[in-house]
Amino acid sequence: MRLGLSAPTQLVDLQDLRLDRIWVENEATVHIGAMCRHEQVAASRDVQGLLPGLAMLAAQIGDRQVRRMGTIGGSIANADPAACYPAGLLGLGATVHTKRRAIAADDFFVGIYTTALDPGELIERVSFPIARLSSWQKFKQPASRFSLVGVFVNRDSQGVRVGVTGAAPCAFRAHALEAALAANWSPAAARAVKIDASMLMSDLHGSAEYRAALIPELCARAVAAIQ
Amino acid sequence: VVADRLGIALDDVDIVHGDTGRVPFGMGTYGSRSLAVGGSAIVKAIDKVIAKGKKIAAHLLEAAEESIVFEGGQFKVAGTERAKAFAEVSLAAYVPHNYPLETLEPGLNENAFYDPTNFTYPAGSYICEVEVDPATGTVKVERFSAVDDFGNVINPMIVEGQVHGGIAQGLGQALLEHGVYDPHSGQLLTGSYLDYAMPRADDLPAFVVRTAKGHALHAQPAGREGLRRGRGHRLTTGAHQRHLRRAGHQGPADARFPLHRVARRTARSLRWLTTSVPPPPNRPASSWPPTPTRASWPAARACCPRCAWACRRPPSSSTCRT
């Protein structure tokens, strides 16, 4: 609605559902309610301490007005190819909880503006395993300031996860980068990875080849920020 | 201009504009020349008013017209204390009880027309410091300094504001803005600010803006050279594009530029810059320019000796920017 792309005649206000809480369970999982504002996520002490990459990500979304009103649930349900949160969910191995079921982030983002949600299915919260070694790098498209490419890097006991947004019709995990970083956790290892441009988007702001070149570079910078 | 010239208060000057029924003949501004040309006409009209005022003052002061001087809003008999203020003289002109009616028409109302015999060419020099990130091709403007000679600056605040706006427009054009049409359908692709990159405050550094009074090539009576709306913008765009073209930067869609070429051209551009300037005062000339020298990069001026852009096109070709 803010971008002028949609003008619905009816709106349903979900404010009274109280889905705007952030809490930590057993020092192992952070739950973020679907209606938590970006600003709230960025400012949360729990998120800053346990999911530093996600706090960085939320703090850089859109502008002040968007961060004041936009919610994590709204962002992931919309699944804009350049939205920031999808990369964070993939990078952190999050789980999306709806009224009926739990969906792993890897299964949640299906395609451009498309998710695994059924019609009418409502997101309640997103849960994240804690990830103290996580970081976010965003290359802003100069006009809209959406991610031209955004890379989320997370290193935990299970290995390395790299979530990428903005580059393809749908956020995805960069398995080549994950493997390279699992073998050698260094910015140089990330820069050495070549990303296949054939699956990436081209638009007037950047070719697929340019996006392919940005992904390892941003990943390397995120790794450097963690070290 | 009027208050200064007549030595009267600013509040005593009324400016009438925006109503063609009340003002004499005029045209559009044509290259921001309103004050350079219109201001000169005002000065000419004021000089006529002063010349007539001297005749009236000579009568009132019982002195020869040649002995009257006009200074600080006073018509004075040269070398004496005897004087009449501008207001007294204008009262006498409109209420002519004591007035040389036989030789002089009452009133103090003058018109003047002015058409410049040549153009004015304000000069200026703009310098910016940019940082190019060779890995991503992004350009960040670190510092920007602008010094202009606009002739007599009438309102420094407006001038500084125009220079600010011009620089922002120029940086936007050089680095961000790009109207793009779909080559097949003709549809405008950059139809909103989601895709058309307008410069925003955080794209720009704090500018250093100064004015320096020099000598106008063709002095106008008002001594004022045109401050063009697009002035900062033209210099800025030129400075940037020239610089960045060497650096391999191609504007907002630079994204497409092969990254290794960005890095290589940046290095070459910096080398060119360091070899093009005279040695700094604290450095012996023998150590300047630093290696590699200009000779090792002769292509820079291959188009023609005069080409300041080093566009490297064939000499004297129609596409050479000189």
Describe this structure as you would to a colleague.
The complex is a heterodimer of chains A (227) and B (322). Chain A has ten helices and eleven strands. Chain A has 227 residues and is an alpha+beta fold. In chain A, the strands form three sheets. In chain A, strands 1-2-7-3-4 form a five-stranded antiparallel β-sheet. The longest helix of chain A has 19 residues, at 208-226. In chain B, α2 packs across α3. Chain B starts with a helix and ends in a 46-residue tail after the last helix. Classes of the chains: A alpha+beta (227), B alpha+beta (322). At the A-B interface, α10 of A face loops of B.
SSE map:
The complex is a heterodimer of chains A (227) and B (322).
Chain A: E1 22-25, E2 29-33, H1 38-43, H2 45-50, H3 52-59, H4 64-69, H5 72-78, H6 85-92, E3 95-98, E4 102-104, H7 105-108, E5 109-111, E6 114-115, E7 123-129, E8 134-140, E9 147-156, E10 159-165, E11 172-173, H8 175-183, H9 187-191, H10 208-226
Antiparallel strand pairs in A: 1-2, 2-7, 3-4, 3-7, 5-6, 8-9, 9-10, 10-11
Chain B: H1 2-6, H2 34-60, E1 68-71, E2 74-77, E3 83-85, H3 86-94, E4 123-132, E5 139-149, H4 156-176, E6 207-211, H5 231-246, H6 259-276
Parallel strand pairs in B: 5-6
Antiparallel strand pairs in B: 1-2, 2-3, 4-5
Helix pairs in contact in B: 2-3, 4-5
